[in-house]
Amino acid sequence: MTDLCSRKLFISQLLQCTQGTHEGKSVFLYKNVPFQRVWIQGTVIGYENTEEADNPVYFLDDSTGVIEVRGTQKLPIKVQLSTGMYILVVGKVLWPAGTERPVIASHQVVDLSSEENRESLWMLEVVDVSSKFY
Questions:
Q1: How does DSSP assign 52-69, residue by residue?
Q2: How many Å apart are CA 95 and CA 131, to the nearest integer?
Q3: What are phi and psi for residue 122, nearest 5 degrees?
Q4: What is the rounded average pLDDT of the residues 49-67?
Q5: In sequence order, what are the residues at sequence separation of 6 or more whose Cβ sits closer than 8 angstroms to the Cβ of residue 18?
Q6: Residue 50: which of 32, 74, 83 has the closest Cα?
Q7: How confident is the model at residue 59 (pLDDT cuts 50, 70, 90)?
Q8: Cα distance between residue 36 and residue 54, in whole Å
Q9: Which of 19, 74, 106, 114 would be a feasible disulfide site paired with 91, CB 3.0-4.6 Å?
Q10: Could you say which DSSP state residue 32 is in?
Q11: What percent of the chain has pLDDT over 90?
Q12: What is the pLDDT of residues 17-31, one digit of tens each?
């Protein structure tokens, strides 16, 4: 069975993905490489309250695009997110019916706001991974 590990992607790459199946599983494809989860990093640029008042939806910007992140309050280790924070998000990619773009259902969020060179190192990591796998 193919390893469907979390893929390090820029948000712009994630937004270019298509839906498909691989070995009987629903997957996303980026340049024909299947995955179900992603690892992205970026700055929290805003949030919206949902019907579940304690579970807002956050919007993450990595300078290549913006993506919606859900489920942050259901994490085992709570991170109090606020606008301007730089975070790492690992989660399952979902494409809700009737929507134009995918969202991320987070299962890990880490505050990297205090890390030096976080954005430039992330860009280099994704470029390195992209050159090897895509």
A1: STT--EEEEE-SS-EEEE
A2: 26
A3: -65, -45
A4: 83
A5: 28, 29
A6: 74
A7: very high
A8: 26
A9: 106
A10: T
A11: 54
A12: 998 888 888 899 998
Separation of CA 88 from chain center: 8
Contacts of 10 (CB under 8 A, 6+ apart): 40, 62, 64, 65, 126
Q: Look-up: residue for tokens 């304690």? A: 54
pLDDT at 89: 94
Binned at pLDDT 50, 70 and 90, residue 57 comes out as confident
Q: List the one residue out of 125, 103, 4 whose CA is nearest residue 48.
A: 103
C-alpha distances out from residue 72 to 46, 55, 110, 120, Å: 14, 7, 11, 25
Cα–Cα dist 39/6, whole Å: 6
**Contact criterion met (CB below 8 Å) for 44 and 81:** yes
Say which DSSP state 129 is in. Answer: H
